Predict the structure of Cupin domain-containing protein.
Amino acid sequence: MAVLDSQNIDKPHETRPFRDHGHMDVITLEDFTLGVGTFEPGWRWSEDVKPIAGTDSCQTRHTGICISGRMTVRMDDGTEATVGPGDVMVIDPGHDAWVVGDEPCVLYDTGVASYAKK
């Protein structure tokens, strides 16, 4: 049987708050998960999500697009890049990240099924 399902992003199935500085709104349809992350100025994975995840670095593979703001990602091997509005991204597990500047960074991310969860 064919699947036809939808959910408006303004009414997420769940909101996962970060320790400080933002949250991730999550919609899950069948085996597809989409998150809209709002990362406020001052957000840093190692301070805001590490206490939730309990890992030394982020172990989630992220795939998505930056809608606004800027975020720098540093891989465990030291490789670093900054994403900004319109940048499509793939980020493998093993990284830290932080918001750059005074504007919230908003990312649409399909790699969040277990992100910011214990």
The mean pLDDT is 96. The longest strand covers residues 22-29. The CA atoms of residues 24 and 37 lie 4 Å apart. Residues 45-48 form the longest helix (4 residues).
